[in-house]
Specification:
71% of the residues lie in helices and 0% in strands. By secondary structure, the chain is an all-alpha fold.
Length: 152
């Protein structure tokens, strides 16, 4: 099990996004309330907290840009039919693909698979890996087309 600061930040970002989507609260409010929750292990502070909130707020803001990419590569699955946690893991990873080019895409995929392994069903690991691999290949080849504001 991964326990590095950036992995913990991705877990926190996923929790913030879950609160945003399921709790239907504004992203900034979800991030603020997450800071108040008693977490396992030492609290996420400094750059780790900043990274988590940046990922969560960026993912929420860019969901309208991210979602079509996911639907295009999730064969026979509409976004609204996916398990919420799987949809959020995919959004988080695709956000990182598009807007955090300093993180290698293979690392993003590995982290997303680990999140799926921890927080979702066993079949989600293959699903998340397959969708993200397809998006990764499309972005690398230019087949995904231009994405507004992306730094790929």
């Amino acid at each position: 099990m991964k326990t590095g600061v950036r992995h913990r930040a991705r877990e926190a970002a996923l929790q913030i996004l879950y609160h945003w989507e399921i709790g239907r609260v504004p992203p900034a409010e979800a991030a603020a309330s997450h800071r108040q929750i008693d977490q396992d292990g030492p609290p996420l502070t400094g750059p780790g907290r900043e990274f988590a909130e940046s990922l969560a707020l960026g993912t929420a803001a860019q969901a309208p840009t991210i979602d079509p990419l996911i639907e295009q590569h999730a064969e026979h699955w509409r976004l609204d039919r996916m398990a919420a946690i799987d949809r959020l893991i995919l959004r988080l990873a695709v956000y990182e693909f598009l807007y955090c080019p300093e993180t290698p895409r293979t690392v993003v995929i590995d982290e997303a698979v680990e999140l799926a392994r921890t927080y979702s069903e066993r079949d989600a690991v293959r699903f998340v890996n397959g969708v993200l691999d397809g998006i990764h290949r499309a972005l690398a080849s230019g087949a995904a087309g231009p994405v507004p504001g992306a730094r790929v």
